[in-house]
Amino acid sequence: MSNQTENVPSKERVSPYIYFGSVYFFVVGVLYLWGYWPTFGINALEYMNLTDTLKLAAYPVVSSFLFVAIGVVVAEVIGINRALAPGAGRETPVGRLLNRLAPFIAIVYALLTLALLAYGPATKWLVLPALFAAPIYLIAQRRRILASVLPNEAARTLVLLLLTMLATYAYGYGKLDAAAVLDGTDYRYLAGGTVEGLTIPDPAKPGNRVKYLGQINDYVFFLLPDNATSVVVRFDKTHALQLRRYRSWIGSNSSP
Question: Tens digit of pLDDT for each residue in 94-142?
């Protein structure tokens, strides 16, 4: 009975993680907004308060990241039975070779990741979150972060994987959303209604469409057909907006 009590995390141990967890998820929300809105020259933080950050970013990030999380969980469960004892892998011939080559591998890894970041197409953000998260995860695992509240090795490994990937994934998902609007592969556009000071061209031609970027509090944001000019309008200056969604899997890959 006493052993079970010792394994239950105390309130003093959990409290700091609750505080830093709140900050972490706020940062995740900011990263998504930072990945999406600046692509159009818009500083979203000027139009929102702290609670809006989570509200605007939570649904798109969490709903899409859920599939990534499921994949990580399945991979972790499948690999449990084949896992070596902690530290045993270092003593194998392959482990000793990798330890000797570790500095060289780290340099090549960093250079390839930076090259992809600088020169890769928009789809690079499907891969970069995992590449950025991997070294952070390894450092967190070696330092046994969360060990006081998650003493189980398998559970802690899974949680650390998800947490390290979520932050970078949020920023990348924002970039992918913005790229889809610019490329014309997935966006919403004005099909009708009135916007004060804005003429809505015939939306039948894709090149004439005014794209809808989103709404923050009392402001609505649009992208004009030139794909470079953003328009900010107060919501009370609009009337009966009709939005349609266009989605295509064929399009160019601009590099944001």
Answer: 667 767 777 888 899 999 999 999 999 988 998 998 899 888 888 888 8
Positive or negative, the CA dihedral 187, 194, 32, 63 is negative
Q: At what angle do helices 128-142 and 93-119 cross, to 10 degrees?
A: 140
194 and 71 assigned to the same domain:
no
Pair 175, 231 in one domain = no
Burial of residue 205, with CB atoms counted within 10 A of its CB: 0-12 exposed, 13-18 middle, 19 or more buried: exposed
Instruction: Please give the Cα distance from 132 to 114 (Å, whole number).
Output: 10
In a domain? residue 252: no
| 3-state secondary structure labels for all residues of 224-238 | CCCCCCEEEEEHHHE
Per-residue tokens: 245 = 């969604």
**Are 19 and 68 found together in one domain?**
yes
CA distances from 23 to 10, 17, 29, 47, 168 (A): 21, 10, 10, 20, 15
Name the 3-class secondary structure at 4.
helix
Query: 239 and 168, same structural domain?
Result: no
Q: How many domains does the chain contain in total?
A: 2
Q: For the whole model, what pTM was predicted?
A: 0.74
Strand partners, 238: 195
What are the φ and ψ backbone dihedral angles of 8, each rounded to 5 degrees? -80, 120
Q: Which of 14, 3, 40, 12 lies closest to 149 in space, CA to CA?
A: 14
Which domain does 223 fall in, by range?
187-247
